[in-house]
Amino acid sequence: MQPLPDAEQLLASLVGQIRPLLDAGAALVGIHSGGAWLAQRIRELHGANIDLGMLDISFYRDDFSRIGLHPQTKPSSIPFDVEGRHIILVDDVLYTGRTIRAAMNELFDYGRPARITLAVLVDRGGRELPVEAQVVGAKLPLAAGQNLQLTRDDSGKLLLKLHEAA
Amino acid sequence: MSSNPQLNKNGKLKHLLSIEGLPADILRQILDTAESFVGMAQREVKKVPLLRGKTVCNIFFESSTRTRTTFEIAAKRLSADVITLNVSTSSQAKGETILDTVDNLIAMHADMFVVRHSQSGAAHFIARHVEPHIHVINAGDGRHAHPTQGLLDMFTIRRYKPDMHNLRVAVVGDILHSRVARSEIHALTTLGVPEVRVIAPKTLLPEDVERLGVQVYHDMRAGLKDVDVVMMLRLQNERMSGALLPSAQEYFKCYGLTPDKLALARPDAIVMHPGPMNRGVEIDSAVADGAQSVILPQVTYGIAVRMAVMSMLAGVAA
Questions:
Q1: B204 — contact with chain A (CB < 8 Å)?
Q2: Which of A58, A105, B160, B264 could form a disulfide with A70 if both were Cys (CB 3.0 to 4.6 A apart)?
Q3: What separation in angstroms does the CA of B108 have from each of B99, B102, B113, B115?
Q4: Res A38: pLDDT
Q5: pLDDT, position B240
Q6: What CA–CA distance (Å, rounded) separates B6 from B138?
């Protein structure tokens, strides 16, 4: 088993890749919860005052009728006009692509973006929808039973954790 | 666990019939979920696809404007198909029983019923009758319960006074006949509000009202002293004709909320009313339209709270 990549280093790599887009006026939208942490950190590390939003995709999930509503929903918040903007959609782990599908649906209910770029910390493979990220921290192919999660400690430091299915 | 008809075997909410008997964490989950729906009104598209393909039937055996309309808007914002029946003016007048009405709607593939009825227990009765995949929401039954009103009131209080464990709340008016009062009191005590007062004349209080965990006041001025929240109730005009009350003027003098009575509450106290208001009977216009009134925000929050309830129910299996 290879060691997991360092989340903080991957984040630094994401910031480097995204910088030109932000300088050209793109806005950041993070997907709750890991993507929202990342988007927030990207904004801090970038330094300039970038528009930042957060999406909780609970109301757009495609498995609602099977598993019901997530017990802990957070309000989505996009405090700027999406219409005509370049949006960088940020998530922690890209897997089936279903979360991104839901997030794009929700984003369009705020307005029509000029362009959406997908930035993820880790692409773990296993896509079930035709979704690809343009900005990737690391590619890390994982088996179906494995669950890769981004966590955040009290000091705000990001850390990847791998859980094996029992 | 499942002796409670509102919960499924995993303790999840499958019908909303009354606040009584619901654990605090379910009430909080409804309020938290409603928080996510409040901001939606600012979006370009004020809809989410959660209930796409589902049919919600509002059956109102008793008339209502606010509750019916906000349930209708809530269901539509969740992308459900909505049918509203004012049964008092149609089938029931022709002699159809409640269950026949419901069975006909199930035959039209209804997935959720929102029921208002003048008989206490009507929503329970329908919930016992329907197939396990169908959900029932009580939108007011007789004197018994009006749970979504109780919840939207809690949501409103929490928005203005976030620390519910440190509040003094007064419920004022016709407690005896009020399903709203009953739902409010159960919600307040379940959510840990330490001091709930009821203020009413003896003739408008149920005999065993203390058993609900409230303090009783007959003098409104004493009861309003230092409260954070004043929840007014509607005085139903039909009560005036009986022996319960002398006259509307007399009632207003003793139990109407006027600016000078409100001045006894805390200076930042909020004033609530479930509507429709009888101005000059239970509430003075200067208060109803004043800076401390949150009566219209209650209506707005009612949509978000009803969306939260419907979306939680719709995702729960039998």
A1: no
A2: A58
A3: 14, 10, 12, 17
A4: 98
A5: 66
A6: 11
Does A67 sit within 8 Å of B315, measured CB to CB? yes
For the entire predicted model, the pTM comes to 0.93
Which of B14, B35, B36, B313 has the highest number of chain A CBs within 10 A, making it the mutation to test binding with A?
B36
CA atoms within 13 A on the CB side of A133: 30
The two three-digit tokens of residue A14, written as one number? 């994401």
> Does any CB of chain A come closer than 8 Å to the CB of residue B315?
yes
Condensed to tens digits (0 to 9), the pLDDT of residues B219-265 reads: 999 999 999 999 999 997 766 666 677 788 899 999 999 999 999 99
* Residues B201, B206, B208, B211, CA torsion sign: negative
Sheet with B55-60, side-by-side order of all strands: B81-86, B55-60, B112-117, B135-141
H helices of B82-194, in order, are 98-107, 122-129, 147-160, 179-190
Instruction: Please check whether residue A96 is in contact with residue A125, taking contact to mean a CB–CB distance below 8 angstroms.
Output: no
CB contact under 8 A, B12 and A75: no
pLDDT along chain A (166 residues), means of 10: 88 96 97 97 92 96 90 93 97 98 97 98 98 97 95 95 86
Q: Which of residues 79-138 of B touch A (CB under 8 A)?
A: none
Q: Which of B275, B243, B126 is nearest to B176 (CA)?
A: B243
Chain A: residue nearest B44 by CA?
A110
In angstroms, what CA-CA distances link B152 with A64, B185, B303? 24, 13, 8
Could you tell me how many CB contacts below 8 A there are between chain A and chain B?
Answer: 53
Q: How far apart are CA B33 and CA B22, in angstroms?
A: 16
- Please report, for residues A46, A123, B186, B220, B231, the alpha-carbon distance to residue B171 in angstroms, rounded to integers and kept in the order given: 53, 56, 12, 10, 5
